[in-house]
């Protein structure tokens, strides 16, 4: 299976700062099938980005995704208080679908 | 607006079978542009894709669970279901149903999740 490794495990930043989250795959991922999710405590994951760089419905433009091959990035340009959560990358270019282990974005 | 809702027992005894149902509203399982999925999340936060079903009944399972799982669909009831046999404590998790759009390969709609504990 295609193992996704996210870094860093925890990212401590302040509101207004820029966040850069990384997702590295053990095998090439088609850019069509790389997605990012945000999860708040006690809630289901919420789709942020699909097909590497497309924002899901209702997602603010401060969230952006990029990358190709085995290296992908989620960037939050200017953090808002509601952005602090756990973020996961996910691929379904090859079965089984797999998720990264998550990056916790916490308030510094 | 699409909504998914999981239902089923919150406590299952070891070696027994876990059965969950996902009710879909606001979309048609038969439309054919989506796969209908089960995903679980362990208490330590890791997410694991269990498998999915297409409206036609075609299924795709995670090889790590393939011998123990069955996913079925009832389009007339707008539901799909999960059966996981021979459960152990390692199957304790929050179970989510989720819609995956074929064109994007992403889970765009999730149920709220249901906690299932395996314990005697």
Give the DSSP E fraction of chain B (strand runs of 2 or more residues): over 45%
Largest sheet of chain A: 7 strands, mixed
**Number of discrete helical segments of chain A:** 0
Distance between the termini of chain A: 35 Å
Coarse shape of chain A: globular
Order of helices and strands of chain A: EEEEEEEEEEE
Query: How many H/I helical runs of chain B?
Result: 0
On the 0-100 scale, what is the average pLDDT of chain A?
Answer: 96
Quaternary organization: heterodimer
Q: Residue share in helices of chain B? A: under 10%
Structural class of chain A: mainly beta
The succession of helices and strands of chain B, N to C, reads: EEEEEEEEEEE
Determine the mean pLDDT of chain B.
94
> Over all CA atoms, what is the radius of gyration of chain B?
13 Å
Poorly predicted runs of 5 or more residues of chain A = none
What portion of residues of chain A belong to β-strands? over 45%
> What kind of sheet is the major sheet of chain B?
7 strands, mixed
Biggest contact: A-B, 27 and 22 residues
Tell me about this structure.
With 108 residues, chain A is an all-beta fold. Chain A contains no helices and 11 strands. In chain A, the strands form 2 sheets. In chain A, strands 2, 4, 5, 6, 9, 10 and 11 form a 7-stranded mixed beta sheet that branches. Chain A has a 4-stranded antiparallel beta sheet with strand order 1-3-8-7, with no helix packed on it. In chain A, strand 9 (86-91) and strand 10 (98-99) form a beta hairpin. Chain B is mainly beta. Helix content of chain B is 0%, strand content 53%. In chain B, strands 2, 4, 5, 6, 9, 10 and 11 form a 7-stranded mixed beta sheet that branches. In chain B, a hairpin with a 4-residue loop joins strand 9 and strand 10 (106-110). Chain B is globular. The A-B interface holds A 1, 32-33, 35, 37, 43-47, 50-51, 54, 56, 86, 88, 90-93, 95-99, 101-102 and B 45-49, 60, 62-64, 96, 98, 100-101, 104-108, 110-113.
């Amino acid at each position: 299976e295609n193992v996704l490794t996210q870094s860093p495990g925890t990212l401590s930043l302040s509101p207004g700062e820029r966040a850069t989250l990384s997702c590295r795959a053990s095998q090439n991922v088609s850019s069509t099938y790389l997605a990012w999710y945000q999860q708040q405590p006690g809630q289901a994951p919420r789709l942020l980005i699909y097909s590497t760089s497309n924002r899901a419905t209702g997602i603010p433009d401060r969230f952006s995704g990029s990358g190709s091959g085995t290296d992908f990035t989620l960037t939050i340009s200017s953090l808002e208080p509601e952005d602090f959560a756990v973020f996961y990358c996910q691929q379904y270019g090859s079965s089984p679908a797999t998720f990264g282990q998550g990056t916790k974005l916490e308030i510094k | 607006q699409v909504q998914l809702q999981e239902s089923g027992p919150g406590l299952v005894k070891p070696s027994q079978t876990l059965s969950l149902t996902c009710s879909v509203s606001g979309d048609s399982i038969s439309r054919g542009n989506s796969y209908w999925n089960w995903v679980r999340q362990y208490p330590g936060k890791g997410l694991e894709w269990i498998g999915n079903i297409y409206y036609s009944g075609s299924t795709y399972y995670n090889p790590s669970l393939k011998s123990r799982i069955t996913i079925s669909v009832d389009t007339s009831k707008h539901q799909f279901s999960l059966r996981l046999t021979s459960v152990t404590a390692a199957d304790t998790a929050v179970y989510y149903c989720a819609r995956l759009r074929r064109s994007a390969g992403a889970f765009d709609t999730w149920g709220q999740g249901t906690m299932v504990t395996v314990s005697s």
